[in-house]
Fold each of these.
Amino acid sequence: MASQQAPSLDPTVARVTDRIRERSVQRRALYVERMEAQHRRGVHRGELSCGNLAHGFAACGGEDKNQLKLMNSANLGIISAYNDMLSAHQPFENYPDTIRAAARAMGSTAQFAGGVPAMCDGVTQGQPGMELSLFSRDVIAMATAVGLSHNMFDAALYLGVCDKIVPGLFIGAARFGHLPALFIPAGPMPSGLPNKEKARVRQLFAEGKVGRDELLEAESESYHSPGTCTFYGTANSNQLMMEFMGLHLPGTSFVNPNTEMREALTRFATEQAVRNTEAGGDYRPFYRQIDERAIVNAMVGLLASGGSTNHTLHLVAMAAAAGITINWDDFTDLSAAVPSLTRVYPNGQADINHFQAAGGMSLLIRELLAAGLIHGDIPTVFGTDMTAYTQEPFLEDGKVVWREGPDESLDPDVLRSVANAFAPTGGLTVLDGNLGRGVIKVSAVEPEHRVVEAPIKIFEDQNELKAAFDAGDLDRDVIVVVRFQGPKANGMPELHKLTPYLGVLQDRGYHVALVTDGRMSGASGKVPAAIHITPEAIDGGPLAKLVDGDLVRLDADTGELKVLVDAASWAERPKRVAELDHYHVGLGRELFGGFRHLAMRAEEGAGVFGGFEADDLARQQGQIHDEDA
């Protein structure tokens, strides 16, 4: 577990980190105070009455029950997103047995504390169930809290991979920040049909040139076995961020499921979690590990790798749960200083397995450390700082050892050095103008497509676009506006269903863009998409003023998004009031009415929990009253 001296910090990274620290000082202090108070109250079963404790181990076997009666060993709580329908989470089925056995070998115990829901955006894409997706993050956070509420545990192991699951687990872990936390991934599926070919078949289907049988065959060859989808979307962005924050063991994010290495890493993670408890002698609680430096590391890793735009929502909410306030300006400023070092689909043709083979996380972290672009001095679950994360795991006689990873890329078409970056910036920027504020990811958008000025065509339901496409109504330069898709309107579904149609229009030579208060997520591709527009249309946002034919300018180079209408007439134009009841009933959507009502704006994380300590501080200072909360 050797470490190396990190260079001085890049000035922009240092400035943004300091700005976040200063902005967060009061709420962060209150968060730490609360975590310390939770620790003082007692973090495990020693605080339980005999009746409480008897309930807590009644179902355990004799060996574990006897161990749990003692108070000098660690008991690990397992929170898992396992289900056997979703490829990314199916591998977790046998993890609890592996974890329990590894804990026993350490003279400790592990209990399955609770399961959390895990839905797949790939299954629900374009379907009503997708409108539950974003809010599932906050449900997962609450389910995590329920699982850990029994206070039986000295540390927690979090098993999750995909879109909303890891952010939800993180938020739950932050509110139990007095416990050491270790995130254990499952890894990506082996490579299947190349992503470029999959995208080609999707576009052919959109044009009616191939049938559903051909489309299903292509999709089945792409998504074909247990593990994460191999494109670089939100799921794999999650794994990268966990490693950049030191919540994974080094080099473990992209090891394939059901391999000897994957199982050995799970055993080692369990052993390390025991070592990180008070009973293990090296107490490393979450709240001491995750601070503004760790959050900045996650942001930089995301930008350098061209990661998911979903994290302009999720990471804001995750940071808030740990008493830290970040905003989209922080992303933009870091993006201007952080070079693009990877080309993984949709930002290139390689998949995440190719990235791993080219040098993977160890080389990416090595490059960013050497350039002073990430904080090397943060504590990690590995028992070191981040400078040890230039290593990667190997097996020796069935046991995991760490060795230094490659110091140069094995495939410069996939992963490059800072000195030979694909682009000097991270390719994410904030758009501002009289249509509101949003984000755009341009790492997969060619420079000639980054500025679009065209008349708009408005849709208030993503399903309407196909009919317009089929009728030829979009065969022109056009900016497609899909509004009333924000968290308050209908839960902010992802709109990938639109991608093939817009891609076809662009391939036909038209200047095309998308503007929406909805999401596009990690698969944002070659068509410029201004997403997460806030305030959303239903919340009084300017998108509600637009009418078909308005001329809109989207300039990703200057960060401009505006409708070219005389300011006086624009100010007087009424806002459309949409009828959204059809979004709110069916497939459980009626259960989430309270979530839609409570949802915060996109730049605030689009969550339902309020501002955590920020609200409490405002209340203490007399800025809000209980009846306003």
Amino acid sequence: MGGLRKLATSFVAPGPCGVAVRDRLKHLTPQDEKVLQAVGAHQGALASRDLKARCADGLEHGADTWAARKRELTGASSSRIAGAITKATHDQWALARRCQAAHIRQLDAGIRTLRHRLSLPLGEKGTRRTAGGYRSKNEWFRKSRRLAALEDRHTAAVAEWQAGRVRVVRGGKRLLNTRHHLAQARLTEDEWRQRWEAERWFIAADGESGKRFGNETIRVTPDGKVSIKLPAPLAHLANTRNGRYTLTARIAFAHRGAEWADRITANRAVAYRIHLDTERGRWYLTASWQRPAIQTIPLETARARGMIGVDTNADHFAAYRLDRHGNPVGEPHRFGYDLSGTTTHRDAQIRHALTRLINWAKRVGVAAIGIEDLDFTAEKTREKHGGRKRFRQLISGMPTARLKARLVSMAAEHGLSIVAVDPAYTSLWGAQHWQKPLTTPHRKMSRHDAAGIAIGRRALGHPVRRRTAPPPHDQSDRAGHRTAQAAPGTRGREGTRPPTTDRPPGEPPPNGKRKREPSASNTVRDAPSTHQWVQDSLMCTG
């Protein structure tokens, strides 16, 4: 075991601490849409201006500059709207800062790998953990050029990080780049412009506990009536008193509607966001709120009723049920999904597969699901897997972070816990110790099914390897070694049998005599070695 890395301890993943539900704003009148567009464009312009000011402040930002920006926005909107805009600006700047740090770490990893491989002789083979040398002089030369390019990018990124300069695009960088590929995206310039402006609109408000229905800016009553506090320059568009505009549409949250109604009835904080889906031409309202973090159950409690081990793959979940002793029960289950197509399609596929997995877990009566704590950040580098393009595309296409967040959230709603385990060697050891023994003419075990068993056993606290087999017949090595050898210096079951005496070990027998005399020899093999065998002369006569 000296060459294996130390495994991380399994743990129960903490539950979700936030909730978001969405409903469509149906039957809006042309006047309603006109008001929503005006409010979104006005507040979106304020948000863009505030983000520009925040990025210009860089690391010099403080409480004074924040207060000054909020005062400036208050005159063009309201105090609550200004607070929502500045908070969204800070969240966006902080996200860009984290992405910048991740980019620098990725460049560091690429530079280290390139330097290591360039320092090796041509054609030198690598190991499972480190890459080897390059195959030819041409490849070595091209990689040396790439090293120089990465070092240039790293120097520029570090300089921007130290100066506090970030790059942020309101509306999204992907949509911005689509402007140069309209034919490929099958969009006209007017359609792109409409999407671009809609993505930059800002119609959102943070909740306030103690205020009527939990939000003073965007107010939703228990019967579904939606009203908006208009900014000061748009107050003339109000159709009710106090500068508010009430929409004709009514909303009714089908999911978590009772929980949402309880919150607004008690005047607890609920945040709202209104946005336009330009592809469908529909308006939506999203409500979100925080709730106390769900207390995770102890690990022993999660293991009490067994476990379902889940192996995550590019196109399916391979799951196997195990009892609390780590024994596989029943047949392997596979829940497929398709990660091609649009983001919406991929999300729907993941949700559908997770729903089927959770429903099966509820039917069999387990309390927890074991899953690998996957993180492919270090494995996605082009320098490490440059020649394995399909492999890089495979691990890059697996939505590990989103999958874990969805699984934890959906499982918590059904009273299930998620046990995260170290993913090291699960596929290797699962195939080695479980794939062949469980394969029958009526059960086809794949490597992924066996990995699910390995994950489940690790989540239960058992070793992945199967139980040690007893020595066959009378010798431990006649039919091969044990399936799991004892560690050096640990004799245990393979030690010598203690003598059948009633005295402590090492004490001489009383009167110098044994308590039990040896039995007489009954076989030729047990005969004393001093016995002289004489051939009978009658056997030689013919």
Amino acid sequence: MRTSLKATLAAAVAAGALVALAPAIGQDRPESILPPGFGDPTPTPAPRPAPPAGTSARPSGTPQPTAPQPTASQPAPAASSSGAMIQPLPPTTPTGIAPVVPATTPAPVDPAVLAQYEMPESARRSLTTVGPVAAREGGLETDAFGDADGRYVETLMRRLTAPLPSRWMSILLRRALVSRVDTPARINGADFAAERAWLLLRMGESVAARAVTQSVDTDNYTPKLYQVAMNTALATGDPAGFCPLVPGAMRLGPARGWTMAQAMCAGLSGNPAQATPLIATAKRRNVASGVDMLLAQKVVGAGAQGRQAVTIEWDGVDQLTAWRFGLAMATGVAVPDALYASAGPQVRYWQALSPSVPLAARLAPAESAAGQGVLSSAALVDLYAAAATDDDTQGVASAAADDLRTAYADRNPETRLTALRALWGGAKARPAYARLVLTARAAARMNPALAKAEADHLVASMLSAGLDRTAASWLGSVPAGGDAWAMIMLSDPDAYRRLSYADLASYSGGEGDSALKQRMLFAGLAGMGRLNTGDIERAAQSLGVRIGADNAWTRALDRAARSGQSGTVVVLAAIGMQAAGWKDIPPEALYRIVGALRAVGLDGEARMIAAEAIARA
């Protein structure tokens, strides 16, 4: 681990009851931009003789030629063999003055047609396969949803309650949702992208959600995708993200949000003369009012030549919506903590990813986001490293940054261990899971022989960041039957033997709910195939774990696993983990989830989820 300070996070909507001013919009059919009669066969007029050298190409007193508009009765001018357009001169008046030709306003060009000329076919992205992360970059394979019915998968995603209690299940679900996968049958690719992005927003993954919406070409947007794209722009605090979408959205059905977006984009493009009347019209029509209108005006004023200052007062505002959050982040307006309490926890994760939030205000939401899997251990360390030199960071956060530096870099192992205890809340405290994530790589540097008393926390910390091989190296140094031993038994990637019923019975349950932990260990080992076959039924009966339970969810999960649909399995596994906390997740559900993930090749994630159950139950 380097001791030099790193750069802060470079990252940047709405969930549940959050209301964004987003419309439901459709699409028009492209129209031809060619003038009438353009494609009709036309006779080639005889060429005019070239004027003698040194003379004007036009007789003196002859009016300037004006090309007539081609009509069905008057053919369009044809090209000569030299490529120059030959156009007949208009008839002259007796006075030699050309008649006045009234100016005509060209018909508006359909953006869908214009897009065909702005982007070649080779640069267009198909809706057959959509997503920002390919398999070679860490995503799932393109056939992750196999022959599943797209409407069924969409329904599963829409009904999934997020955030989830498991960090590793959340990480795996994000991986599935951002993967470049084939669009399932009976669903539009843009709509499928919208459903994935909407679930990511509810999980707190604002940056990932924006990447999914941007993986679809704008001329392929559907009403649902327009709506979700507005929310992703708000969740990332980026109202400029509206601007490429405004023309299509306004054409298809201007709703309140897009009406305001039109004014904001005019202001952001340095055109206040256009933005001002749009804002005035919106006020007159009561498109928005109160703090919603003031925030939009503040965005307009932030553009070049905005020349207006708007003060935002939160008095009387009792609900934080995606609109208010996004425009406040974009304009640097601090949102009161009381308003965050009115929204879901995912909004705090959006805040952690927003670069406009001061470091001191980002540390607490960043820890929550790391515990949820939205931020990695390395990203959280980077944030604290930056906070260590930030003058505005409060004393407690600054002290934590100093302890973190000591835990990673001090040469004395005992000093490093003391710093870890301080970060965890004391020698006898049960650490918050986010702090285990923060100290993962510092824990990996500890010597097992010198830190046996803290083995449970150190192993849990390592596994929170996926350092499974490092944790496995502690096996000979931790007491059998403890939490550290149980987590290593579940997470070791090179486990070569199956455990017996006696091994399982030796586990005491460690800290927390010991009875629940015993059942979770059994469920994880059975799902991983690390128990002797004859002992599984015996342990299930003695511990009261109904691993043979059969219901609609287990049947769907088994069917998806047999078909090799890794994406469907991940979504169904997430549905099985919808709960307020680990204590509310049935052990038999963990057994089914771990087994299904292994069946579709997601062995690593299955091991991490099983070990997390011991660390957090």
Amino acid sequence: MKKLSTALLLSTAAAFAAESQVYTGNFFDENEAYYGPDCEKDGSAFNGAYYTGNYESPFKTYLGKTDAEIQEKMDAMWDHYFKGDNNSKVFFDNGNEGYIKDINNNDIRSEGMSYGMMIAVQTGHKEEFDKLWNWAKNHMWHKGGDWDGYFAWQRRDDGFGGDDNCAPDGEMYFMMSLLFAANRWDDDQYRKDALYIMDKMWNNPGHKLFNQGNYIIVFQPLGNGNDFSDPSYDLPAYLELISRWAEKDTDKWKKAVSAAREHLYKSSNTSSGLFTDYSAFNGQPQQYNGNSNSTKYMYDAMRSAMNFGMDYYLFGADSTREIEMATRIINFFEKDGYQHARFNWDGSNPQEQYTQGEAGANAVAAIALRSTPGSEDKIKKNLQNAWDTKFMTGQYRYYDGLVHYLAMLHLSGSFKIWKPKPEVSEKEVTANEYNGINIANDTTFYSFESCKLYKVSAKPEPKQGFNTAISLNNSVRVRSTNNAIVIDNAPAGTKYTVTDMNGRILSASRTNSASEEIRLTNKGAMLVIVGNKTYRVSK
């Protein structure tokens, strides 16, 4: 049994009384941009970060990395890929413009440009974000004409040539990064640009980003590219947000959310958990004349693990199937010893060496195992793989380097859902404890209660002439049985709280006897706060 500090629970994103949707913390960055809790209008309850505002890094909770160590790692990544020398950087500054370059292919791709914008908005680098968006607008974005609203997937670094057709993962990342930028930097022009793109994804007369019958994103909205998909383009977490923030076609966007989750699940091999680069709408491998490896787990396919892992921790709405997918693919790579990179769909015919991008993507998928008993070592191994991955240099640094970078945003707690500014009400309280926050001095914090956000000004209660606090000794024990959590040797009346590892309250009350049995159906790792001490147990 491992004892944890109470501070782990009472961090800025700690959540209490989840059954009544109460979360306490800060939830704003230094410029008052909001990334805190939210709730569903229909009363649905999920425990993803969208609802809790909890973005605590699994590097911290599983590997014991400090906030300073994590920030140092992320700062070093930025310096390497955006500010480094010509053997490390992929971002190239060009005055009021800038671009991300595929070094191996010597071109500029919508994929890399949109990845760069997502990295910039999540790490707070507005100058580089604007330079990337200026380049994409000036040289890739079609405003009018046959491809109105879409982006040319390829250009030379002088902004010309290449291919005017689109690559849909670029459109997805452009839309999402612009919406985040609009909210984080309070700039409505970003939102207007995003809304223009979003409109054309459904309403361009000649090109639809999603199949009009099943709402699955297509491989390319052109010719027979409309007849199948690429599962690594399925980004249900992004579609969830777009469906909330769109001004039109909201029913279609909502259908696309469900379609993306369904297609990802069907595209995951039931044995290996692997995906193929291209797949039919029913999830089966899709042959394509332009790619002889389209039916294999190759370069595109590795991103699928990051996509469903992201959806799991941000929303949790499809958690049962995403846990199943994570279990399959992580168990497969465990058996392989994380040695190989390319496989047939069923996991046969291993080829090439495990890559930096896979280390990152699989670590994000492994987050979905956190409630699965016996998975802690697997989670730690994947997190350690991602943490230990060396930043890439040389000819092939662009693709795997950026996929690993995106994954590290999720794993470090740096990736947040930047939301429109909420309404905030004022509240004053006098108490020694409020929604899990200990109040020893005058303090201010935010409290999200029943779908409303309050700025709480708190003062401690006046001291009484005697001390009624219960003092715990070292004889207190917390243990688990098949059906319950048991607290032994705590005086009757001791306050306790039981949470899952995401901070969701499972039970909270006071002990009635020296051996308190708390009956729970939940399984897996849990945190039990007894008085002023926190214990970790597995059930």
